[in-house]
Sequence to fold (146 residues):
Amino acid sequence: MYGNRSLLRHCERCVILMSLMNIVGIGTDIIECGRIARMLDHHAERFTNHVFTNEEIRYCSGRKVAEQHFAGRWAAKEAVLKAFGTGWIAGIAWRDVEVVIMPGGKPTIRLHRGALQKALDLGIAEVLISISHCKSHATATAIAVK
Fold:
């Protein structure tokens, strides 16, 4: 796809773009959908109410393969906190990181309470998210930017 020179120019543009965006951190996560399916089977309401917001529960429950969508949101929440560089620290709960689907289908991150405060402390203005899933796994990558 790229010759050596065009690849170098492409990489230089990426470095310039990244520096302009002021990337604070990048996080990624992957989870087996079967693990989430088992949690849904054994602890359905307790599990979903602890980890997901009401809107996330409504959205995922209405999908054909709900466990894949729940797994994608689980991975997204993990990826966001990895992008923060904090992991699950005191004061941040699962429901403080919410995946919201925009009208065109693009996932976005909405932060609440402890996660919002940590983002403000770190100077994070936005968290970009990409989520993907198949029958066996779900993955997400988050980029926290100033």
About this structure: The radius of gyration is 17 Å.
